[in-house]
Design a protein that fits this description.
Elements lengths: L3 H28 L3 H12 L4 H4 L3 E4 L28 E6 L15 H7 L7 E6 L17 H13 L4 E7 L1 H9 L5 E5 L10 H6 L5 H19 L8 E7 L3 H11 L15 E4 L12 E7 L6 H7 L3 H10 L8 H12 L8 H16 L1
Parallel strand pairs: 2-3, 2-4, 4-5, 5-6, 6-8, 7-8
Antiparallel strand pairs: 1-3
Helix pairs in contact: 1-2, 6-8
């Protein structure tokens, strides 16, 4: 039988051992690629900030490589330099999805697709990439208060006064914020946005993204208000929101039924929010619409619709069709040069002697008159 002092030693040692194990696990996760995922979960539930994640919150990429108007230390709170002379006409604002769930933080999501859309064109663009360190649908601001919607909407509104065109793009968790800010931008494109986090399954809510029930209501209200403003043309300039959902995905069906109607509970369509709902067709004229809220349903069973479209070479043509409606300037440089050459090119035909003699007589008649 153990003596009393042995029991005391056990009570002291066991917590220390557990603490050492948890501490070692924490340091291991922090140093390796999966740190973004585990730290984001810990940050979401405890509201403790980690500089390792905050440095990835915002990344500004100007088209002009010589632009030094935004310092590298402005990631956490990026304040636009109002005197910056290097701005391009177009600004992309990308909201990353649950990137940390698949291993590490992708700081420049959609950058490759943007470059492909503008390849061989004369239209330059700046880009601002966002990630959500706490993975809570961007509902937390950089000070970790639940003022994320106000923070990001103010940021989009400010940039809209500095650029001719502001384009929002995002998928899943990032698509949610796109739908909440779409009335402030020129063009907004959301793939599989989560408009009601309470409809997510419990495992995904625990392991994927954190959203308290009271904040889920905030998302629902803001999305509906934004869509009604766009559909009712209550903005100063025309703006358009395109939403793409996977028609064969049960998770996306639950989200889509909130606004397009139908589903298990036979919900009515929110006619005040929507301009059109249709099965996706690249040749549909509404793909290039410059106003309204358009929902597109794809024959896809995956929530990662954008990835599926990219692998099947459908994503870039789709994005280009959206962009052409907003005069983004996607005409290729080679096409412009060909057109200029055609305008400057003069076709010369050999004239017969009889025709030349007739032209000379006509010219003399005109002079005499």
């Amino acid at each position: 039988m153990l003596s009393t002092w042995c029991w005391w030693w056990l009570f002291l040692i066991i917590p220390v051992v557990i603490g050492i194990i948890l501490g070692s696990f924490f340091l291991f996760m922090k140093r390796h690629r999966g740190s973004g995922y585990f730290l984001s979960k810990f940050s979401a539930f405890t509201r403790i900030r980690f500089n390792h994640l905050e440095k990835r919150r915002q990344t500004y990429c100007p088209a002009n490589d010589k632009c030094q108007c935004h310092t590298n230390e402005s990631a956490a709170h990026i304040e636009p330099n109002l005197t910056c002379p290097h701005r391009s006409p177009t600004l992309y604002m990308s909201f990353a999805g649950a990137a940390m769930i698949v291993g590490g933080v992708r700081t420049t999501e959609w950058r490759g697709s943007m470059q492909q859309c503008h390849y061989n064109t004369d239209d330059q663009f700046d880009a601002l990439f966002f990630t959500d360190p706490a993975q809570c649908f961007y509902l937390q601001d950089p000070d970790y208060n639940w003022q994320g919607i106000t923070y990001y909407r103010n940021l989009v509104a400010l940039y809209a006064t500095l650029y001719q065109r502001v384009i929002l793009i995002g998928a899943s968790l990032g698509g949610s914020m796109v739908c909440m800010c779409a009335d402030l931008a020129t063009l907004s494109i959301a793939f599989n946005p989560i408009l009601d986090p309470t409809l997510l399954g419990l495992p995904w809510r625990i392991m994927g993204a954190f959203c308290p029930a009271r904040q889920a209501q905030v998302i629902r209200d803001q999305v509906q208000t934004t869509m009604e403003i766009i559909a009712g043309k209550k903005t100063n300039d025309d703006c358009v929101l395109h939403i793409h959902w996977s028609q064969l995905s049960a998770a996306d069906q639950r989200q889509a039924h909130r606004i397009i109607g139908g589903g298990k509970y036979k919900k009515p369509r929110q006619t005040k929010c929507l301009t059109s709902v249709a099965d996706f067709d690249i040749n549909n004229p509404d793909i290039s619409s410059s106003s309204g809220v358009h929902a597109w349903l794809h024959q896809c069973s995956r929530h990662a619709l954008a990835m599926h479209l990219k692998r099947t070479d459908q994503l870039i043509p789709l994005l280009k069709r959206h962009l052409t409606a907003r005069s983004i300037g996607l005409t290729s440089i080679s096409s412009q040069l060909d057109e200029k050459e055609r305008q400057n090119f003069t076709i010369e035909f050999p004239l017969s002697t009889k025709l030349l003699h007739q032209l000379d007589k006509d010219a003399i008649a005109i002079d005499l008159s």
